């Protein structure tokens, strides 16, 4: 099975900073990669799918890129409401594995 | 408005069974794949199982294969997860999630979850 890894596991940044999270698949998954945001105590929310397509209603400060095995999620200007754990997920075929998550805090 | 409401969770002893349900509304249920995702306390997301619109494609995580069975009743707009031989490590919040028209699509709506606690 394909394994998903993320780095860093956590980060702390200032409001307005550019934040980048990396996700790596152990084998190529083309662009079948989604990013989810889970705020503390809340349900996960789909942010990006097909590696770079923003889900409807998601602020444009979020963007995604990559293909094959290496992917990134970028928040162009971190806002207080972006405090959350971010997960990548492969969905080309079962098992639809999630990455371990990256916790983002405000410094 | 899409709504997914899970039920059936609770406290159960190791080795026993439990059946989770997910009632769906606000979309054409029988057009979409559906999934179960769980989250152990303080841990990350783990995909558990998924089923295509017509039950023609079904998948399980290795951790539950042979013990859990996913099913759906399109006439009742409902998704189920039969969990047998439960273990302490199955303790988690279980989410029902809506997939896409294809089995390999992301999960765009999630329920609030139902808590399963496996303990003697």
Automatic annotation (TrEMBL), chain A:
Protein name listed in UniProt: IG c499_light_IGKV1-27_IGKJ3
Organism: Homo sapiens
Pfam families in UniProt: V-set
CDD domains in the record: IgV_L_kappa
Chief localization: membrane
Record localization: Cell membrane; Secreted
UniProt keywords, alphabetically: Adaptive immunity, Cell membrane, Immunity, Immunoglobulin, Immunoglobulin domain, Membrane, Secreted
Cell membrane recorded as keyword: yes
Gene Ontology CC terms, in alphabetical order: extracellular region; immunoglobulin complex; plasma membrane
GO biological process: adaptive immune response
Domain Ig-like: 2-89
């Amino acid at each position: 099975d394909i394994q998903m890894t993320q780095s860093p596991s956590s980060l702390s940044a200032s409001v307005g900073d550019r934040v980048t999270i990396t996700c790596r698949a152990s084998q190529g998954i083309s662009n079948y990669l989604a990013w989810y945001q889970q705020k503390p105590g809340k349900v996960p929310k789909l942010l990006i799918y097909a590696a770079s397509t923003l889900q409807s209603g998601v602020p444009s400060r979020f963007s995604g890129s990559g293909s094959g095995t290496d992917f990134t999620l970028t928040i162009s200007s971190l806002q207080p409401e972006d405090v959350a754990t971010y997960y990548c997920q492969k969905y080309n075929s079962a098992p639809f594995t999630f990455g371990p998550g990256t916790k983002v805090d405000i410094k | 408005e899409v709504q997914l409401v899970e039920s059936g969770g609770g406290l159960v002893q190791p080795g026993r069974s439990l059946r989770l349900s997910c009632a769906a509304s606000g979309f054409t249920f029988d057009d979409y794949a559906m999934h179960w995702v769980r989250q152990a306390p303080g841990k990350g997301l783990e995909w558990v199982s998924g089923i295509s619109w017509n039950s023609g494609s079904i998948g399980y995580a290795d951790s539950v294969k042979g013990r859990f069975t996913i099913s759906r009743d399109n006439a009742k707009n409902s998704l189920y997860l039969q969990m047998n031989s439960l273990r302490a490590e199955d303790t988690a919040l279980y989410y029902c999630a809506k997939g896409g028209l294809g089995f390999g699509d992301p999960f765009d709506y999630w329920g609030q979850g139902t808590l399963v606690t496996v303990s003697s």
